[in-house]
Amino acid sequence: MKIDLKTNIKAIIARSYVRIVAANREPSWWFTETLLPILSTAAYVYVYKALNAPEEYTGFVILGGTMSAYWIHVLWSMAAQFYWEKEIGNLELYMIAPISRMSILLGMASGGMFLATTRAVFIFLVGSLIFKVDFAIISLPKLFAVFVLTLVGLYGLGMLFSSLFMLYGREAWHGVTLLQEPVHLMSGFFFPVRNLGFAVALGASLIPMTLGLDAMRQLAFKTGAKSGFISADVEIAALVGLCVLFLVVSKYALEYMEKLGKKEGRLTLRWQ
Amino acid sequence: MTNILKRAKENLRTIRTAGKLGWAMESNWTDPFLFAIYSIVRPLASSLILVVMYYVVTRGKTGMDLFAYIYVGNAFFMYVINVLFGVSWVIHEDRDHYQMIRYIYISPIRMYYYLFGRGIAKMVLTTVAVIITMAFGMLVLKIPVNLLAINYPLLLFSVAAGIFIITCLGILLAGVSMVTAHHSYALTEGMAGLFYLACGAIYPIDILPVWLQYLSKALPLTYWLELVRRSILGKSLSPTLSGYSDFQLILIMAATTLILALFSHWVYRSIEYIARKYGKIDQLTSY
Amino acid sequence: MNLAVETFDLNRTFKLKKAKNKGENGNNNGKLIALENANIKIHQGELFGLLGPNGAGKTTLIKILATLLLPTSGTGLVDGIDVVKYPEKVRKKINMVSGGEHCGYGILTVRETLWMFSQFYGIATKVAHRRIDELLKILKMEEFAKTKIGKLSTGLRQKLNFMRGFVCDPKIMFLDEPTLGLDVQIARDVRIYIRTWMKENPERTVLLTTHYMAEADELCDRVAIIDKGRVLVCDSPQNLKKSLAGEAVFYIEIPLSVNGMEKFGQIPGVKQFAYEHKSHLGRTELKFILEEESAISNVTESLSGNGSKIISLSKMEPSLEDVFVALVGRGLKNEN
Questions:
Q1: C244: part of which helix (H) or strand (E)?
Q2: Most buried among A126, A148, B97, C93, using CB within 10 Å?
């Protein structure tokens, strides 16, 4: 079927508008999304300080905390969002609209990315300044490419989760809760992933954040390459593959789950 | 006297009913096996992050006192994250999700007991998670804990006191949630982050800058964690806190808890008034 | 004449975890039959009503036609397009409003919410705002344009949901109990708007479900009566009422009497019988559809014999509700 690009772009803008404008309408948002998230990241920095760890580990944690803003956002505001939309009665209205479900998700993602970026930038800047992080950027274009690819892959994964969680009630909620900490562990948010051993790190590489973080550490810190999992160039290539994989799979998963939901009558089932 | 008894009975009934409701919400989404896995995986993952961080730096010397200090503190800090969330998230969940807050709010129950009751399920689950995490630490990571040497009365007292302190904090955040939107989960998460940073959960507070140590000393959770660690490990690693006896720590914890309880009550009541004034009790805020 | 909606033997069953009810539309195989061989034809430009009690299958039918639910078997066409095969094409033609439901995000204003939904249908922002202004004016919501929807009253939120459906100007509109729970004035505004909207463009079609018989009588060109998943009859309200012309409809009030009502249905000459208890008035209202007027004497005798004092007795012109009673054998209010 021919895709009405104009309508879908309008849908993306409209859905992202909700996130950007509405969240900023709540003054408390600035407090909860900027000042507070730096605190738990700082706690991990102090663990390394208590252990007399090498200085670059502070930078590793700040980078992990920065990227954690996106992971948390993908989990709570992407993966679980269709479940929320179903609960508040909006999902069925999206389903009957003549737009791709991907547009709704892209709208959520782009709007939410703005919010997550605010949080991430704050953690990055304040963390780097307070803890005097010493960056030694090897290649800025590569670093930027890794960052963008990581986000695309991560939000692709979020879209995939969205489709899976669309049909579920509280399972979705708990699924999200369950993923948060283990992924923080497996993706090496606060330490180089190589330390988990090759097999575990390889398995964890299915999550774009694992390779993204590792590559960014290699490209942004003096000793980063020494503690890297595999070379940054290979990681970039793998990230490209993951981006394509997740975006394509999420599209089909979304269609499949929608069909399943319509078949089983669970698309509009609420308050489970 | 009869009135007091009657009221106590009513409050107990509220706690029981809210507890059952909380348990239903926590547990009825899946089969018991999956639920058990879910209850174990998360806390273990959170502890393993610190374990790996420790291994990365020390190359596996887990026998050190600091490792046990970090591990025990982190295990018990789960109470802060879960119970805080369990109590404060009720407002958002009942308001935006189930849209039942208006009916609960107008019923003749006392909200504090309701909120506490709703948090009970989290308390039970967290206790299980803490036991599993500790067992994992002792059996797999060889944390030096002598089960016979644990000061059980102090441990039980500390856990009960900790739950009370966290409930007070939860009520404070529940009050704030009445006037904030969908993102109030970030508030709870952020506050837990603040306590994680300042209360010496995973390092002695002495490592913190002096100005932050003032905050640490003002928070009852700092003394609670110290008491828990002393009851299990039998010693303290914090030069600042090791100067206090157990009894002195209990007294300081009691005093700071009293101030916290009064502050929470004041915040909750004030914000509740504002919420009623501006019609926010049953507002829908999702975005 | 072009058909806006057409269904062929549409069926929908739901699997139940535990089959508690073994009623007529439920069975002990753990399945609930929500729709059974539903065949309807709605012409373009028609305001078509689907009448039936709660659980009759009205919402199931609307959900299937609105591409939210797949039928178990059968075919549904909307503007000639198969809802199962080409849902994307169908969605360009339709919109849906469910009564008693809200839409949007509490933190957006009324205007922003309507604009957001208009964008999902590709409407230019300028056009959208013009339509929003019109709708706000017609539905008397102008003063709330900048109010966050989280602060609206329940009725106003429903009104907003109603506007949300119309801001996209669909060709075919599904209105599922649009006046459910609305106060008299707002419900009246809504009904007036539906009629006005239909008149503006002869291509517009509305499928309205309701269990308010008077609403259907007032609004609809044709109605189908549906019960327990089956479409029982389909015609204009006038013709349906005419079908009872040979019969006599009587309302009788007796003192509140809870037990033994069913036996009045057995009185000779009684074709159908329904009742409603009005506890607050201390009365029970009986409705008799008689094969012929003279059978009323059998009724009064039977009531006297039963010791029931007749408080009032009146002969009525047949209404759609009487048609429903005649077809189903019970009123909407004594569904069990």
A1: none
A2: B97
**Number of inter-chain CB pairs under 8 A, A vs B:** 143
Q: Which residue has the tokens 């209105």?
A: C175
In chain A, DSSP finds a helix count (H) and a strand count (E) of 13, 0
Choose among C102, C108, C150: nearest Cβ to B283: C150
Check C108 against A1: CB less than 8 A apart: no
Residue C310 lies in a domain: yes
Any domain includes C225: no
Give the number of domains in chain C. 1
Whether B129 and B78 have beta carbons less than 8 Å apart is answered as yes
CA distance A220 to A223: 9
Does the beta-carbon distance from B193 to A29 stay under 8 Å?
no
- Within-domain flag for A272: no
Residue A103 within a domain: yes
Query: Chain A partners of B191 at a C-beta cutoff of 8 Å?
Result: 36
How far off is chain C from B77, nearest CA to CA, in Å? 34
Is residue C59, in this structure, part of any structural domain at all? no
**A53 touches C at CB < 8 Å:** no
The per-residue pLDDT for range B170-221, each reduced to its tens digit, is 999 999 988 887 666 778 888 899 999 999 999 999 999 999 999 999 999 9
| CA distance linking residue A132 with residue A128, whole number of Å | 5
Mutation test of the interface with chain B: which of A17, A18, A19, A28, choosing the one with the most B Cβ atoms within 10 A?
Answer: A28
Q: What is the CATH number of the domain that holds C291?
A: 3.30.70.260
Contact B119/B87 with Cβ under 8 angstroms? yes
Q: How many Cβ atoms are within 10 Å of C93's Cβ, its own excluded? A: 17
Q: Number of folded domains in chain A?
A: 1
Residue C291 sits at the chain A interface (C-beta within 8 Å): no
Per-residue pLDDT band at B100 (split at 50, 70, 90)? confident
Residue C122, chain A, CB below 8 Å: the answer is yes
With CB atoms and an 8 Å threshold, state whether C106 touches B287: yes
**Is residue A271 a part of any domain in this protein?**
no
CA A173 – CA B180 distance, rounded (Å) = 21
Q: Rounded to whole angstroms, what are the CA distances from B234 to B134, B137, B231, C199?
A: 15, 17, 6, 84
Q: Is the pTM of this model over 0.95?
A: no
Instruction: Tell me what the mean pLDDT of segment C214-218 comes to.
Output: 85
The strand ranges marked E within chain C are 3-15, 31-38, 41-43, 47-51, 73-78, 81-82, 94-98, 172-176, 205-210, 222-227, 230-235, 248-255, 270-278, 283-290, 312-316
Count other Cβ atoms within 10 Å, centred on residue C29: 11
Contact C105 A13 (CB under 8 A): no
A76 and B185 within 8 Å at the Cβ level: the answer is yes
Least confident window among A131-140, A167-176, B76-85? A167-176
Q: What is the pLDDT of residue C22?
A: 47
Cβ–Cβ < 8 Å for B200, B225: yes
Region B101-106: mean pLDDT is 81
Question: C108 and A22 in contact by Cβ < 8 A?
Answer: yes
Any idea where the domains of chain B sit in the sequence? Answer: 7-277
Yes or no: say if C116 and C108 are a contact pair by the CB < 8 Å rule.
Answer: yes
C283: number of Cβ within 10 Å: 17
Q: What is the extent of the structural domain holding A78?
A: 5-264
Does residue C294 lie within any of the structural domains? yes
Residues in A closer than 8 angstroms to C14, CB to CB, are: 265
